[in-house]
């Protein structure tokens, strides 16, 4: 079976997704082939050069033209405000859809996407790629097995430092009408996805956001452009199952490059994960004998979920591209098996609902209920 991919966008995510598709036949069942059929971007230079570098057979200027080609699935790696139109049109034409996070700039737009893919009955997936990491899936397995008991605490941080310099130019990620939010949607959404995946649904949140740099220089111009999204967000969470959490996302933390961590504490132990050491999962069990208690370092290898598809022994280690491979594997395997992919657009919608409650809480300064929209 051959799955023909159309990709819209040629940036960092376009690059990683394309690399994953190029090697995917190594990771999916025998006989499944992925063809990089057509690549779209907004200029001829971007589309043509991208197609040459990434290995697409065809290129087009403007996403609408991908449908002139024989395709099965659409991969959306554009700025957030463009996601809905592409996803909805792809679904209308019966194409499977994988889309970068956050799915859209608000809940209303995200819901339109969910309705479109579900009406069309196409496979849909949101790119919370860090959820595919074997150490994270293993953490979920341990929680589900009761290894750390009843859950009390979840705490997560996603910190970067690429926005600290006020001279770093204005890009769409600093504009609410294009991005939806700032650090919250760009990186906080990954940590929120972890919270839902590992602990469960949110009941209510109270949050604080801050925009430290209020305007930035436009690239190549003398003018500046206002920044109307959060540079940083801190939130407290009350989960429906009684656990409590705190979550921080900021792109203003010098020294933190792609620092994504979580810790979950339960009645029988704790789990700790840090993306920058993603081949290890730290597990503390209160059931261990008293004279040997301490966080143990589980070295991830083929005996762990999702990692069986990767390398033959622990210590060979995975990195960023493997998250894209595991994600593409889930998407393509779901198409082949005729089932829904995980995480789906519905997961993206619930994360959007949480983010809307967070922004509302930050604006009002009060605890805010999180509507369950899935
Ligand atoms: C930029 O902050 C970014 O590329 C995010 O958009 C990604 O989701 C994150 O994984 C890496 O950083």
Describe this structure in words.
- By secondary structure, this protein is of the alpha/beta class.
- It has two domains: 127 residues, NAD(P)-binding Rossmann-like Domain (Rossmann fold); 230 residues, Dihydrodipicolinate Reductase, domain 2.
- It is built from nine helices and 17 strands.
- It has a nine-stranded mixed sheet with strand order 16-15-14-13-7-12-11-8-17. A six-stranded parallel sheet has the order 3-2-1-4-5-6, with helices on both faces.
- The longest helix has 20 residues.
- 48% of the residues are buried.
- The model has no long low-confidence stretch (mean pLDDT 97).
- The structure holds alpha-L-sorbopyranose (SOE).
- The site of alpha-L-sorbopyranose (SOE) has 5 residues, from helix 7.
Can you lay out the helices and strands and say which pair or pack?
Elements (H helix, E strand, L loop, with lengths): L1 E7 L3 H12 L9 E9 L2 H11 L3 E4 L11 E4 L6 H10 L3 E4 L7 H14 L3 E3 L7 H11 L6 E9 L16 H4 L3 H16 L3 E9 L4 E3 L6 E3 L5 E8 L4 E7 L8 E8 L2 E6 L5 E6 L10 E4 L20 H18 L7 H20 L3 E2 L5
Parallel strand pairs: 1-2, 1-4, 2-3, 4-5, 5-6, 7-12
Antiparallel strand pairs: 7-13, 8-11, 8-17, 9-10, 11-12, 13-14, 14-15, 15-16
Helix pairs in contact: 1-8, 3-4, 4-9, 7-9
The protein binds alpha-L-sorbopyranose (SOE).
Alpha-L-sorbopyranose binds next to helix 7.
**How many domain units?**
2
Strand content: 25-35%
Q: How would the global form be characterised?
A: globular
Uncertain stretches: none
Mean pLDDT: 97
Sheet bearing the most strands, described?
A: 9 strands, mixed
Put simply, the count of helices is: 9
Helix and strand content put the structural class at alpha/beta
- Span of the ends, CA to CA: 32 Å
Report the CATH superfamily of the largest domain: Dihydrodipicolinate Reductase, domain 2
The helix-strand sequence is: EHEHEEHEHEHEHHEEEEEEEEEHHE
Number of strands: 17
Strand order of the largest sheet: 16-15-14-13-7-12-11-8-17
What is the CATH class designation of the largest domain?
Answer: Alpha Beta
| Rg on CA atoms, Å | 21 Å
CATH architecture of the largest domain: 2-Layer Sandwich
Small molecules bound: alpha-L-sorbopyranose
- Helix content percent band: 25-40%
